[in-house]
Amino acid sequence: MHSTLTEHARCLHGDEYRPTPKCDGDHQEHYFVEELTFADADSILTRMRELCPHVVDGHLPVWVRNLAYRLVLLQRPDEPELLREAAENLWLHGPDWDDIAADLKRRTDSLKPG
After folding, report:
1. How far from each other are the two terminal CA atoms of the chain, in whole angstroms?
2. Which of 81, 2, 13 is closest to 45 using CA atoms?
3. What is the pLDDT of residue 113?
4. pLDDT band at 76, cuts 50/70/90?
5. Rounded Cα distance, 98 and 113, in Å
6. How far is Cα 98 from Cα 63, in angstroms, rounded to an integer?
7. pLDDT band at residue 38, thresholds of 50, 70 and 90?
8. Burial letters for 78-109: b for 16+ Cβ neighbours within 10 Å, e otherwise?
9. Could you give the residue ranges of the DSSP H alpha helices within 1-114?
């Protein structure tokens, strides 16, 4: 059994920076998606930042990255730094999501104090 979401992701998708640990866990993707779906924002962000510290790196599939940011933004919709981070991720892994990234950027701009 995996003790963290990061560990589960590392076993399922690998890790560009560390070896994939030996594990007897059941690595069916739907178990990971279920764990991700109900994870808190801090757990999701920890996993993203540890496995993909430079946004363009890491072995996580793009759809997992997009789902992760969507789930984080549902939990923390008004945090400008997270909106920027999600928009950057979408732009780098688009162009299918460029319009959504632009909308996130507009939301970020509207949250700036002023």
Report:
1. 48
2. 81
3. 63
4. very high
5. 25
6. 15
7. very high
8. ebeebbbbbbbbbbebeeebeebbeebbebbe
9. 5-13, 29-37, 41-51, 62-75, 80-92, 98-111
